[in-house]
Amino acid sequence: MAVGDATNGGGGGVRQRQRGCTCTKADFFPEESFSSWSAYGRALRSTGSRLADRLTSRSLDSTELHEVRAQSGADMKRDLTWWDLAWFGVGAVIGAGIFVLTGQEARDAVGPAVVVSYVISGVSAMLSVFCYTEFAVEIPVAGGSFAYLRVELGDFMAFVAAGNILLEYCISGAAVARAWTSYFATLLNHKPNDFRIHVSSLSSDYSELDPIAVVVIALVCIFTVVSTKGTSRFNYVLSVVHIAVIIFIIVAGLTKADTANMRDFTPYGVRGIFSASAVLFFAYVGFDAVSTMAEETKNPARDIPIGLVGAMALTTALYCVLAVTLCLMQPYKSIDTDAPFSVAFSDRGMDWAKYIVAFGALKGMTTVLLVSAVGQARYLTHIARTHMMPPWLAQVHPRLGTPVNATVVMLVATAIIAFFTDLNILSNLLSISTLFIFMLVAVALLVRRYYVSGETTNANRNKLVACIVAILASSSAAATCWGVNVEGWVPYAVTVPAWLVSTVCLWAFVPQARAPKVWGVPLVPWLPSASIAINVFLLGSIDSKSFMRFGVWTAGLLVYYLFVGLHASYDTAKTLAAESAAAKVEDGESKPARGGVHSVEY
């Protein structure tokens, strides 16, 4: 498909905007299904057949890399290196999680064993990093996990994940922005909530209004719209300062260490450790944003593995040392939940140090907001390229080379959530969405390695499906037993061996159908299977109210999909398929056929 074409022919009448960021009906609903009310009525009557088509359809690597990407008109600028990605990774992850949730979980959920919780969450995150890295190297597009799931699990599962990806980014940005306000207040000698407006008529979870968070998000929006490379340089400077502050916290904090504070190491038991791990997974959220920058990376095959894996290894080590430092400085029952490190230094007679801590925390949270803004806009851009969301959101500004529309829309949504919602609600709901998506990416990697359409036999396909279902079922059973607090070890003596047997069967009886071209996850299927098990098990440690909110959100996504997204993406897919076939036929006709038959490889 020629990028310079002004329109797409036939099929669904999907017009492709090439220049500028306009705002017309054709930019939002260019598909044939929305051309008139009668056309929309016909589309609704075909919902069943269209849903069946989308449930079984899978995209191709080449489609995501070329036809879908071309829907943005202008290309994003390729000017990022592994150095940029590594600092984006550090900047994306080290923020509100370590500076806020560490205190909250250490005091109320796990005690000094919070360091063990960070290790468990870090292992889970690293397994997911491996899965993301293989996909990002082979499908270097802005869509991240959305594009990966479209290729391996199909349109429908990709859309469900997409909605939760967008929720994840809005929530994480809102949580960090609210934490920014807390530390800003501390820096100015105020209590964390002093700059928030209390409205008693609202529910207690939504009554602390935060206008400062909204202003911070607006400033981040302006900066990320202007330049990705400029954002990278600013992020690099802030991250270096941030790392220096972290080193100061560790060194200065350990001079005030008291090992007596660690004697009651697990006051809440093993259940507290895993419950805190599920919430602290929030602290690792952000690395997936780096995978969305693959489209802007000069050499994805080299730069992405170094940037992603290196950033996650450094982050995990720093988290564990910081958690130990905090618990050595104060008894866990005395840790402050809003600004734990600042208050810890004040209580230990180093009141001056709280200003350095607050300054460093603000720097870290600012980098998280910057990288989150870059990542969430690129997710939404690629989702809109498939027309599951209005294609107006896919437009890339021809001069700036950034997705302006997607950036602004996502940050407006983030600002609204940040203005109202309490951090505790945000962190729990975020962890559900994140763990769910990471589990799906691990499943998708197994499908990618073990199934190639037209090559894998029906018998091997059926064995693959059975093994994946068994892995998911055994992991879910263990998580359910944990979540409902089943007493005794018997349930786990059944579910853990069941997971092990399922993975062994996949390893022993199903041949791999595809090897990674450049960089691949080691120890397949063990690492992806372990990622599935850990992510699902951590889901079992999250409270029921968060699952209810997650269910309501997912139900809303399905309503939107059945009435809008399904029909828009169906029309677009048919149009792109027709164009691709026509282009191949035209290419074939331009060459002399041999023996009267010309074979075209798709």
From TrEMBL:
It is found in: Membrane. It holds the Pfam family AA_permease_C. It comes from the Eukaryota. Keywords: Amino-acid transport, Membrane, Transmembrane, Transmembrane helix, Transport. The keyword Transmembrane helix applies. GO terms for molecular function: L-glutamate transmembrane transporter activity; L-lysine transmembrane transporter activity. The chain crosses the membrane at residues 85-103, 115-135, 209-227, 234-253, 273-294, 306-332, 352-379, 400-420, 432-452, 464-485, 491-511, 518-538, 550-570. Residues 519-569 form the Cationic amino acid transporter C-terminal domain. It is a multi-pass membrane protein. Its main location: membrane. GO terms for cellular component: plasma membrane. Belongs to the amino acid-polyamine-organocation (APC) superfamily. Cationic amino acid transporter (CAT) (TC 2.A.3.3) family. This is Cationic amino acid transporter C-terminal domain-containing protein. It comes from Digitaria exilis. The lineage of its organism: Eukaryota, Viridiplantae, Streptophyta, Embryophyta, Tracheophyta.
